[in-house]
Design goal:
Blueprint: E1 2-5, E2 14-17, E3 27-36, H1 39-46, H2 49-54, E4 64-72, E5 84-87, E6 90-91, H3 97-100, E7 111-112, E8 124-128, E9 132-134, H4 141-145, H5 147-157, E10 167-170, H6 174-186, E11 191-195, H7 198-206, E12 211-214, H8 220-227, E13 233-238, H9 245-251, E14 253-261, H10 273-278, E15 282-285, H11 293-304, H12 306-315, E16 316-321, H13 325-334, E17 339-343, H14 351-361
Parallel strand pairs: 10-11, 10-13, 11-12, 13-14, 14-15, 16-17
Antiparallel strand pairs: 1-2, 3-4, 3-8, 3-17, 4-5, 5-9, 6-7
Helix pairs in contact: 5-6, 5-11, 6-12
C-alpha cells in the first residue's frame, strides 16, 4: 500500500510503498478515505525536540481519519465490514486504575495512533475494535475525518456549563474555531475569540463569535467594554499555547471563573497564582476526548443541528489529494486558514513507482 511515513529520525516524510497491515483477532482494518492534518503531524514532519523525544521511526503518522471497514478480526463482535467509521486515536491499557474506573482518557499507558504505532496516512490502517467509532448515519467524509479534533473542541467546551455564560476563547486555530461553534450551539451568551491572524478571526465570526480581538493590537478588556460586560468572563478556553494568553485570560475572568486549557504551552507561563486563589478560579487541563461520552455528544449535536454541520464544514478550508501532502502540510503550518484534509480515495502510485511500472511494461 502507499503510505506517508517517516523512515528515520530526521526531518521530512516520504510517500512510498509500505507493507499492508493485517488485523489481529480483535482488530479492524479500515480503508482510509480522508485524513486531517494535525499539529502533531507537523511536529513529526519537522522532527523537532518533542518528536525526537517521542517518536520511534520508521512509523506512519496520522490519527484523524474517516474510512470504510474492509476486514475484521475473528473476535470482533460489533463492527461490520462495510461500516463507515472514524477512530479514537488513544489506545488504552484497560487495566490501570483510571481505565478500570471508566476514565479511559486518563490511562497512564496510552499509546497514540500515528505516534506510538502506525497511523492513518496510508491506504489502510488497523486499530482495535474498541477504538472504532461507527457512523450509523450518513456523514460527509471530510467531517468524519475531523471527528478527532472536533472531539477535542467538544471535550473542552463541555467541561463547564455554558448556557447564558460569557465565554472567552484564546486561539482561533481549527479546534478553537470548533469550540466557538459548540459554545454557540449549547447556548452561551457572549463569545469572544482572540488571535493574531485576520483570516482566522474572520472564520471565528462564521462560527458564531460575537466579537473577535486581534491581540497584536487590541486588548480583551476593550472587548468587554464594547459588549457592555460588567463582571468579566465566566468561562475561558485557552487553545493557543501562547505564554501570554492564560495570564490575560485570568485577568479578564469574573470571580469564580473557570478555564479549560487545551493549548500546549510553547514556553513557561507566568501565572498570577494569588489571583487564581483570591478570585477562586478553576483551571482544568484537557487532553483528547472522553471515551466515549465526547463521541456520543458530538454525534448527537451534528445529528440535530444543520447549522453546526455547516459551521464545522466551513472550518475545513484546504483540501488536497494525498499525493500533494506537502502542500497540505505547508498550508497547515502557515496557520492562516482552518483545517486541512487529505483525500486518499483515489490515490495513485508515487512518482518513482509509477515510472518503474511504466518502464516494466514498455
Amino acid at each position: 500500500m502507499l503510505a506517508l511515513f517517516k523512515p528515520s529520525a530526521a526531518p521530512g516524510l516520504e510517500l512510498d510503498e509500505r507493507p499492508e497491515p493485517e488485523p489481529g483477532p480483535r482488530d479492524v482494518k479500515i480503508k482510509v478515505l480522508r485524513t486531517g492534518v494535525c499539529g502533531t503531524d507537523l511536529h513529526i514532519e519537522a522532527w523537532d525536540a518533542w518528536a525526537a523525544s517521542t517518536i520511534n521511526p520508521p512509523i506512519i503518522p496520522g490519527h484523524e481519519f474517516y474510512g470504510e471497514v474492509v476486514e475484521i478480526g475473528s473476535q470482533v463482535a460489533d463492527v461490520q465490514v462495510g461500516a463507515m467509521v472514524s477512530g479514537e486515536g488513544h489506545i488504552v491499557c484497560g487495566t490501570c486504575r483510571n481505565c478500570r474506573a471508566g476514565r479511559r482518557q486518563m490511562c497512564i499507558r496510552t499509546l497514540g495512533v500515528g505516534v506510538n504505532r502506525d497511523g492513518a496516512f496510508a491506504e489502510y490502517v488497523v486499530i482495535p475494535e474498541s477504538n472504532v467509532w461507527v457512523h450509523h448515519e450518513h456523514i460527509d467524509p471530510e467531517l468524519g475525518a475531523i471527528f478527532d479534533p472536533f472531539g477535542n473542541a467538544v471535550h473542552t467546551a463541555l467541561s463547564f456549563p455554558l448556557v447564558g455564560e460569557d465565554v472567552l476563547i484564546t486561539g482561533a486555530g481549527p479546534i478553537g474555531l470548533m469550540a466557538a461553534a459548540v459554545a454557540r450551539h449549547v447556548g452561551a451568551r457572549f463569545i469572544v475569540v482572540t488571535d493574531v491572524s485576520a483570516p482566522r478571526l474572520a472564520l471565528a465570526g462564521a462560527m458564531g463569535a460575537d466579537l473577535t480581538v486581534n491581540v497584536a493590537g487590541s486588548r480583551i478588556i476593550d472587548a468587554q467594554r464594547r459588549l457592555g460586560m460588567r463582571e468579566g468572563f465566566d468561562v475561558g478556553f485557552e487553545m493557543s499555547g501562547h505564554p501570554g494568553a492564560l495570564p490575560e485570560m485570568i485577568a479578564n475572568l469574573n470571580h469564580g471563573g473557570r478555564v479549560a486549557m487545551l493549548g500546549l504551552p510553547s514556553e513557561p507561563i507566568d501565572v498570577d497564582w494569588a489571583k487564581v486563589v483570591t478570585h477562586m478560579i478553576t483551571i482544568k487541563g484537557i487532553y483528547g476526548r472522553e471515551m466515549f461520552e465526547t463521541w456520543v455528544a458530538m454525534s448527537a449535536m451534528l445529528h440535530t443541528s444543520a447549522w453546526l454541520r455547516a459551521a464545522l464544514s466551513s472550518v475545513i478550508t484546504d483540501r488536497f489529494p494525498a499525493e500533494r501532502w506537502q502542500e497540505g502540510f505547508d498550508a497547515a503550518r502557515a496557520a492562516t486558514g482552518g483545517k486541512v484534509v487529505l483525500d486518499w480515495s483515489a490515490i495513485s502510485p508515487a512518482p518513482h513507482l509509477a515510472s518503474a511500472s511504466t518502464a516494466a511494461t514498455s
